[in-house]
Amino acid sequence: MGDEGTLISKVMAAIRRRVASRSLPVGAKLPSIRQMARTMQVSPATVVEAYERLAAEGLIRSRPGSGFFVASLAAPLDLSEIGPRLDRAIDPLWVSRQSLEAGEGDVKPGCGWLPPSWLPEAALRKALRGLSRASDVDLGEYSTPLGLAPLRLLVGRRLAETGVEAAPDQIMLTESGTQSIDLLCRLLLEPGDVVLLDDPCYFNFQALLRAHRVTVVSVAYTPSGPDLAQFETILAEHRPRLYITNSAVHNPTGATLSPVTAHRMLKLAEAYSLTIVEDEIFADFEDSPAPRLAAFDGLERVVQVGSFSKTLSASARCGFIAARRDWMAGLVDLKIATSFGGGRLSAALVLSVLRDGGYRRHLDGLRHRLAGARADVAARLGRLGIVPWLMPRAGMFLWCRLPDGLDSADVAREALAQNVVLAPGNAFSVSRSAGACLRFNVSQCDDRVFEVLEASLRGARARAPA
Amino acid sequence: MGDEGTLISKVMAAIRRRVASRSLPVGAKLPSIRQMARTMQVSPATVVEAYERLAAEGLIRSRPGSGFFVASLAAPLDLSEIGPRLDRAIDPLWVSRQSLEAGEGDVKPGCGWLPPSWLPEAALRKALRGLSRASDVDLGEYSTPLGLAPLRLLVGRRLAETGVEAAPDQIMLTESGTQSIDLLCRLLLEPGDVVLLDDPCYFNFQALLRAHRVTVVSVAYTPSGPDLAQFETILAEHRPRLYITNSAVHNPTGATLSPVTAHRMLKLAEAYSLTIVEDEIFADFEDSPAPRLAAFDGLERVVQVGSFSKTLSASARCGFIAARRDWMAGLVDLKIATSFGGGRLSAALVLSVLRDGGYRRHLDGLRHRLAGARADVAARLGRLGIVPWLMPRAGMFLWCRLPDGLDSADVAREALAQNVVLAPGNAFSVSRSAGACLRFNVSQCDDRVFEVLEASLRGARARAPA
């Protein structure tokens, strides 16, 4: 009976899984008793009992003479259910959720943004005052489909500084860098397509792609870009439709693409009809621009996206897409369909700050301050045996390896109990092979971080299997 | 040879269609010569010639010994390609595109928003000044996952006035009402699901659903809600997973749901496991609230969405979702994955205006002004033989029928040549059965609208088939 009970549970679990994954949607007919018995290698009586119990729960119901059907609301799409579950607690949304939900007193060396005091708050306040007085700013209207023209012009000029040529009609403003990538996925992907990511990569690329129901493959990232041999093998084998990566400063590694790697990548992309989304969200952190794929390629098969959330304000939501001219109408349609007009207010605010000479000075100061912080934090981490994979040329991140084979998920959990949000390596790793790594945001590392880190390392060591 | 040429073109067109629709994605192998010849009922030689020509064009390429493969970038998703194409020029995106792209001097009686001078611009400017000074507003940070807590509390209180009970943890702020519906579609729908809309309905529901690759069915809307007999038949026959509709003031008809219809709809929704998205974007136009499905249902199988773009500002992007508590975690994950944090700045601005006593006064004045404009515009349209389907109790829309069997697409094209953007009926109609209708926004109808309308009617009459 115990054994029979186990078999009944097994059948019930199989149906529940199929309902949860929507392979059996509401209203769908369940497999016949006989068919299910064959599939699960159990007796028909076992299936009858399992179906009856599921009907009693309300998940399915029987229609006399025609079988069993899915009755209740199927479980809604759950991003945390879709991906690899080897390390359930540390999924790609872990860092975002913990960082965005952190309380007042929490420290967030794992988060991906600067503290408010590092941002040009005075310039933002000045811009708000300006907007409240300006007679030419329409505070009530939707934006035009492509977005505020003078800001598009200015974005084009900024891109030109990195060698990317984009006319204002090839630039569409969005509400964020994330929305930019989302719109491109909507334009270019179908469910079931294959998409290539770096390993490690920005964790939200994975979360976003789960929402698009595509298959993700990954290529190891080296200090000068993706591993080219692996890149070619994957292109030949999996034929990914898209590759999403960071230019300027790679997240989380801080690596910089080399010109020779960029050139070879583009040749391979052409040979295998690959489209590349180049996210240059960290562009303003650079002293001198690293090579851009979009500059080599001329926006043929490379699309650029970016935003102002890292160096100007994460609160005024404004991003952009620079793409081939023949994709713009489709992108505009998708933007209208899924978010209607853009935010004229945020765009006007960003434009006002960018136009102010103070923003360049702010960036100069910021780069200097980050360089100091990178050196300082690397030294302090070194004393704990935590070593950066490389010393980045720019940006806020240090991608580090823990000592003694410690598991960063363990360390992150210990630290979270002390209200310190760390960013464990596997949140960034499609292959879940970065369990020994942590990403540190040097602008968010105060003394308490190192104290808690030391204690957490001790805790993780004590709990590690001998 | 002419005949052979036609057959070759036929095969080429078939392949092009399959590449454009992505049923043959990049890298996919084409059907073998023999197979394609059988399918198209042509000779193998015809297929060989067609494939060679497509290869010469670069769309496909041959790999010796293994056949033909799709070579070039497949056409990206084109929303205008997916839906019904009976009336290509007037697709669901027509009104949005024309209205959002309208130039300075254009008049937009077809658009879905108020002129800036009808919005509380002084209150907005005051709120901006306040934000520029406030010490407690963080201008650099991302918002928390659910969004600004005091605004969620306030949204909950406003919903309570219509009988909808939603605790702050059942409310998530978004960047727009459209994004709210988009996130719900992402949570609840799979490609290929069936979704029910009203006929007529807000055109962007159709555009949005195309982006989700679902099948749309529609139910005729009556002055008191959807036609109940048809509603039941459709639920039984098509088993739609979602029904998206307007509460408060129906767009485009201005109809008001009756309590008895609401009650019966909910019983049917329960019987057929239907989830309902109730968009209450026009709520603030009402003098006294019409019945809300969500109030009857208690947010069990009804989800409410809304925004502040119609009565406060379309520029400060801020919307919300009020839903079952067990859906909130999934919605938050999707919001983070697809747009990261929300816009704290817009939320703070909206909160500031809503808290100001001036907003209630603004609404009182606005409702009065709209009531006058509805009566005035109805009278002036009547003189042209254009008659409202009903006189709405609230809001900015009049859904009208043209005289003499005139086609509203024709009239709209005539008017557009005179820089007047009208909203032709079939943009709102899933069944494309509203060719004789136009939606008028009474707040955007100045003298020129009636002059151009009169001339356009004349033009359309002259061009109409005798």
Automatic annotation (TrEMBL), chains A, B:
It comes from the Bacteria. One of its GO terms (molecular function) is pyridoxal phosphate binding. Residues 5-73 form the HTH gntR-type domain. Pfam families: Aminotran_1_2 (PF00155), GntR (PF00392). Keywords: Aminotransferase, DNA-binding, Pyridoxal phosphate, Transcription, Transcription regulation, Transferase. In the C-terminal section; belongs to the class-I pyridoxal-phosphate-dependent aminotransferase family. This is PLP-dependent aminotransferase family protein.
